[in-house]
Each structure stands twice: as C-alpha cells, then as structure tokens.
Amino acid sequence: MIRTLLSRLAAALGLAVAATAAVVALPGTAVAGGLCELDRPCSYLTYNSATATVTARISDFDATEDDPADFFQVRWTINRNGAVQTFPQQKIAHDFRNSFTYASFGPIAPADRGFVIDYSAQSCISGVFGSSCSPWETESIVPLPYGPDTCAAGYVWRDAFPGDHICVTPASRNQAASDNAAAASRVNPQGAYGPNTCVNGYVWRVARSTDLVCVTPAIRTQTANENANPNAHRA
Fold this sequence. Notes:
Layout: H1 2-25, E1 31-32, E2 42-48, E3 53-59, E4 71-80, E5 83-86, E6 90-93, E7 101-105, E8 116-127, E9 130-133, E10 137-141, E11 156-157, E12 167-168, H2 170-181, E13 203-204, E14 214-215, H3 217-228
Antiparallel strand pairs: 1-2, 2-3, 3-7, 4-5, 4-6, 4-8, 8-9, 8-10, 11-12, 13-14
C-alpha cells in the first residue's frame, strides 16, 4: 500500500510539473493541471487549436491495484463571464489497455475560446447494487487566454512597440528587442531627417507607420513580411 501511494504521488507531481512547463513553453496551447488528490482521478487538460477541442488525459489515482475504476463520469461547462452553460454528462469507459483514459470537448466555437471552460471528473466502480464513485476532481482551462491575439504554439508577440501583437518566432521577438535597445546608437541627428536619420547601412523598421527605429534592410523586409499577414501563426 505504501509503495502504491508513493507511486501515485510521484506520478501526480510529474503531471503538475509538466503542466507548469507547458504554460511557459507553449503560449499558444492552453493547459491546466495541478497536484493530484489521492481519493479521486487526476486529469491534465490541453487545448488543440487545430481542432478547437479540449482533451482531458485522465489517470485513476484513487483506485487501488485490486480495485480500478470501471468508468469515469465527466462534466464540462463554459463560463461566459458569469453565464454558465452546462453540457450533458459523459460516461467514459476506463481504457485498461493504456496508461490514460481520454475525454474530449469541442469543437469550441470561436466566440467561446476566450472563456473559462470548467471540467469535472469522478471515477466509478460498478457493483451489484449500483455504482460507487469517488469525489469530483475539478480543473479549468481558457483555450485562448489572450483572445484572438493568442499565438500558436512556438510563436510569441513581436512587441516591437507597445501593443504589437503580431505573432512571430522567439528569434524575431528577440531581434525587435535588440533593435529597440540599440536605437539611439544608429541615428545621425545632423542628417536629413534630424534625430530620426539613420546612419549608413540602416533604414527605418516601420513595424507601424510611426516606427522609425533604425534596423538593417533585411530586418525591415522581414518586418514587412510579418505585417503582410497579421493573422498568421495565431492559435
């Protein structure tokens, strides 16, 4: 029994670490998760922007080795700023062939992807006189935490100027920050455009019409290409 409890605790901690890492590393993929309680199932939520679905990966942490759950009961709701819509409860058979059982919700309408989606699950064991179920586990997730400006996985806001939410690679974001930091060293105040005159070899970036930070011609072209399709790389 002690070994079983320790193994469940280690697995629960592993899921919590994975969830935290995903929030940092994949800004376009919303996730939820936390420390698992040993008297109920333990789930890890992810959002797939390609299919607009939330998936719950369920582990039966409340079960003993001799008494696993036969099925899970799952509930989903959408909280639209206090107006809660509850969806029909799902009964999901325990997938004994694999380490995890999966439940999905969606596709989620574009207008709902910025709201909180609440999830609850309990594990149940069938018996002669009915089913015996665990307490409910609860999790929440926001598919697009930044609404329509949420970037797809692997992309971040460029931030060439405050409010610049063009989704670009981390390298492009770093380049914009570097160019901003070096801006003062790339101007010739005595030039034809006064304090906005770039030194030889540099041109205005024009991330927006008033963006006169001096960059190399290659970066100006890259910026123009990024601006040409502002909705690219969004979740």
